[in-house]
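Researcher: Quick test of sequence recovery. Tokens follow.
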């Protein structure tokens, strides 16, 4: 997340939206959250039990996975 970004003004996405975006199952995503310490951390809003993730953080995680898979140095 950008240091100058206000999380309240960011786009938040749910687990089903992440699964659709990545083309994975909820089970895969659950395992990734458990096993990958670099995966973005969720937020839980008052009165809502479902986790939500900042889209900006998810995109940064995706970029880091692409860089790692290609063996490139992070920019």
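Model:
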């Amino acid at each position: 997340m950008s240091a100058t970004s206000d999380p309240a003004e960011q786009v938040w996405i749910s687990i089903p939206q992440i699964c659709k975006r990545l083309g994975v199952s909820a089970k895969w995503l659950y395992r990734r959250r458990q096993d990958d310490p670099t995966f973005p951390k969720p937020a839980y809003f008052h009165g809502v039990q479902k986790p939500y993730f900042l889209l900006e953080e998810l995109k940064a995680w995706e970029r880091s996975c692409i860089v790692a898979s290609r063996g490139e140095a992070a920019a």
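The helical segments are 15-22, 26-35, 55-70.
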